[in-house]
């Protein structure tokens, strides 16, 4: 793939009728990403349904059940690109019981597009979507005020919605995100790829222009390098007889040859002898590189261990407090035991206490006995072994974990460490 | 030496996934069709473990109706990289009476290979099968997980999938279950082609324009050959064609093309207005063709 094209990952969210599928279909259409056969299928389907416009929502609603119900029921991934940028959209349903899906989609995204129906304004689900963007600390939020065609492209309506949304921003605890308001009509293509002549009062970028100028890096991520070891490479071939390398993906910051590192959990120290990517040796690796590191000393390193710069040791604890989103129908209760997977490291975890159920409409929290599917709450855990973590607000990869049910092996929760 | 290394984000993510397979499973296997996607997977696996060898074998389910160019390419690749190759044949499943050959105008062995694949998984007790499916190929695949758990019958339960948060992969499974792994889930067709070009990866010759005996049916170009059912009125022509996707001969249609170099192919894909699976005859059976096949264990 082209090296000079950056990759931007977007989570879209909206209620069933906000026109989210239409918006995505429109983005695909305007970037010429819909192929002739797909376009023909859309035309055919739209005609069959008797519509007098193209129903772009048909470009994204995949599964049979969805076509029957006319709604989106899971996270779907959609791809399109412009000359400068590759985009991946994680399309997540806005339906009330699907907090899980939006958290999932947002976990791999840098940008959230929150759709608002201009006729309805800020509603319950808008709050929930913004709450989740906040919880996941997405650096960029685009508030797309859609269906402007149905309110006569009225500026006052737009301004009122913007004002209402800003009340939410005041209540949020994550203020460094960039929030951008764009009035659009996905159906008519206003302010999507081309600037709308019907809304001359709007002076900002079109949606596509805005998405294109974003930088893929997370806004808040500080330069703390974390290198969890996935797999130990021991070739045992004649050419590389003594080679012992640690493979993994680098997160959060750069690592370079000659740097002093500490291996966790043993706290032994060594120096980076070499960094490899396939058959090339490199001097300095940047975040999100999948590399192999070899060390100057014969130290014991295995899967689940983590290499960090010796002057940037993370916190270690056998007791942690985290915000949890329950992503499985089995509730989380005090006393439950799980496998906690933190990056690639696994320990056992026991729920010590559930502090509260957090309301996703910014109205505070309340005590609870359990967290059910789609609930978000604050939970204290006791661990079988210490984990070496950063608060999620400082390092996403080293501040998040999943809980795995020991009976079903399902992923039942995702946690964000405080 | 390369001073500062800037990763290709999709490649790095795929390598991370392949390493998780080696770390979390006991008997992984890479499903190899000889097509561009599985060839790309082999390169990614090389990169994941270098300088060590790829720590799992390749499995090819041979329908017996493959393009000979694909088979010879496969054997050469395995030889060069010192890989282990396992081949299981659909013909054997037919001989054993487990599946029945389809008859008539649209007969194909594409659906039959599911049985052969499931038998091979059971025979070798594979717990993870790495495949080259991409979410952009087809609507039902857009919802596929990276680690997709299948039951004893190889079935995909799309309503009960494990959510995948960040890039943490949960490969815990019960006895008898296995996981289908899709490391290039997030790649598009163009990504694959640009990667093949950048990496200078060899691919079978049928991906490039060549002269072939073909016939037209339903607006698609079929290979004229003893394995492909053809009616007497369907006239055989000699045309310059190439394949965009390579599967069984009975389900893979060609496209008219003059693109005989990688550069020309990449340019053709970039400007193409037909989707890749538009040339898959198996998907044309119905709107939900892929989804229905996946539910019963199709790869």
Main β-sheet of chain B: number of strands, strand sense, barrel status?
Answer: 6 strands, mixed
Number of domain units of chain B? 2
Number of strands of chain A: 23
CATH superfamily of the largest domain in chain A: P-loop containing nucleotide triphosphate hydrolases
User: What's the structural domain tally of chain A?
Assistant: 3
Structural class of chain B: alpha/beta
Widest β-sheet, arrangement of strands of chain A:
2-3-1-4-5-6
Low-confidence stretches of chain B: none
Mean pLDDT of chain B: 87
Can you identify the CATH class of the largest domain in chain B?
Alpha Beta
Contiguous uncertain segments of 5+ residues of chain A: none
Order of helices and strands of chain A: EHHHEEHEHEHEHEEEEEEEEEEEEEEEEE
| Relative helix content of chain A | 10-25%
Gross geometry of chain B: globular
Q: Can you tell me the CATH architecture of the largest domain in chain B?
A: 3-Layer(aba) Sandwich
N-C termini distance of chain B: 41 Å
| Helix coverage percent of chain B | 25-40%
Largest interface: A-B, 79 and 64 residues
What do we call the CATH topology of the largest domain in chain A? Rossmann fold
């Amino acid at each position: 793939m082209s090296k000079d094209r950056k990759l931007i990952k977007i989570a879209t969210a909206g209620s069933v009728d906000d026109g989210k599928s239409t918006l995505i279909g429109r983005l695909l259409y305007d970037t010429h990403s819909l192929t002739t056969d797909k376009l023909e299928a859309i035309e055919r389907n739209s005609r069959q349904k008797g519509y007098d416009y193209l129903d772009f929502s048909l470009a994204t609603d995949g599964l049979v059940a969805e076509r029957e119900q006319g709604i989106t029921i899971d996270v779907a991934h959609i791809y399109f690109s412009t000359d400068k940028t590759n985009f991946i959209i994680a399309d997540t349903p806005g339906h009330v019981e699907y907090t899980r899906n939006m958290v999932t989609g947002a976990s791999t995204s840098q940008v959230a597009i929150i759709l608002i129906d201009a006729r309805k304004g800020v509603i319950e689900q808008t709050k929930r979507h913004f709450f989740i963007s906040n919880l996941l600390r997405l650096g960029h939020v685009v508030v797309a005020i859609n269906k402007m065609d149905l309110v006569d492209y009225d500026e006052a309506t737009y301004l009122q919605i913007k004002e209402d949304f800003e009340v939410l921003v005041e209540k949020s605890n994550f203020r460094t995100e960039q929030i951008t308001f764009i009035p659009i009509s996905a159906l008519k293509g206003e302010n999507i790829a081309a600037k709308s002549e019907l809304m001359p009062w709007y002076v900002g970028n079109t949606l596509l222009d805005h998405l294109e100028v974003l930088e893929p890096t997370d806004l808040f991520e500080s330069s703390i390098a974390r290198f969890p070891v996935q797999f130990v490479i021991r070739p045992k071939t004649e050419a590389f007889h003594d080679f012992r390398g640690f493979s993994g993906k680098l997160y959060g910051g750069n690592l370079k040859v000659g740097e002093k590192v500490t291996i966790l959990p043993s706290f032994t120290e060594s120096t980076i002898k070499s960094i490899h990517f396939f058959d090339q040796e490199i001097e300095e690796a940047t975040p999100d590189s999948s590399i192999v590191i070899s060390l100057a000393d014969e130290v014991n390193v295995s899967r689940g261990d983590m290499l960090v710069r010796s002057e940037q040791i993370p916190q270690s604890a056998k007791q942690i407090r985290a915000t949890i989103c329950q992503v499985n129908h089995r509730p989380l209760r005090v006393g439950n035991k799980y496998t906690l997977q933190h990056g690639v490291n696994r320990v056992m975890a026991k729920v010590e206490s559930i502090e509260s159920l957090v309301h996703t409409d910014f109205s505070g929290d309340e005590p609870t006995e359990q967290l059910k599917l789609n609930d978000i709450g604050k939970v204290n855990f006791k661990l079988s072994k210490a984990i070496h973590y950063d608060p999620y607000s400082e390092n996403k990869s080293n501040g998040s974990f999943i809980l795995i049910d020991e009976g079903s092996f399902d992923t039942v929760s995702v946690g964000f460490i405080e | 030496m390369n001073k500062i290394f800037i990763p290709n984000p999709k490649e790095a993510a795929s390598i991370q996934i392949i390493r998780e397979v080696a770390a979390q499973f006991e008997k992984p296997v890479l499903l190899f069709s000889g097509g561009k996607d599985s060839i790309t997977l082999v390169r990614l696996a090389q990169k994941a473990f270098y300088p060590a060898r790829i720590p799992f074998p390749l499995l090819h389910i041979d329908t017996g109706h493959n393009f000979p160019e694909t088979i010879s390419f496969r054997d050469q690749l395995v030889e060069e990289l010192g890989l282990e190759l396992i081949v299981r044949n659909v013909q054997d499943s037919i001989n054993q009476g487990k599946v029945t050959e389809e008859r008539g105008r649209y007969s194909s062995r594409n659906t039959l290979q599911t049985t052969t694949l499931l038998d091979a998984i059971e025979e070798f007790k594979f717990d993870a099968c790495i495949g080259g499916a991409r979410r952009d190929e087809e609507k039902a695949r857009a919802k596929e997980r990276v680690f997709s758990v299948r039951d004893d019958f190889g079935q995909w339960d799309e309503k009960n999938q494990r959510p995948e948060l960040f890039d943490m992969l949960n490969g815990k499974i019960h006895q008898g279950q296995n996981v289908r792994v899709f490391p290039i889930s997030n790649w598009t067709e163009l990504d694959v082609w640009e990667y093949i070009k950048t990496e200078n990866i060899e691919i079978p010759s049928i991906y490039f324009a060549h002269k072939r005996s073909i016939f037209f049916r339903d607006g698609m170009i079929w290979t004229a050959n003893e394995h492909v059912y053809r009616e007497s009125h369907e006239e055989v022509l000699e045309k310059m064609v190439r394949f965009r996707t390579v599967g069984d001969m009975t389900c893979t249609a060609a496209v008219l093309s003059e693109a005989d170099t990688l550069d020309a192919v990449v340019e053709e894909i970039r400007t193409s207005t037909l989707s890749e699976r538009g040339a898959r005859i198996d998907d044309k059976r119905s709107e939900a063709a892929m989804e229905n096949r996946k539910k019963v264990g199709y790869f």
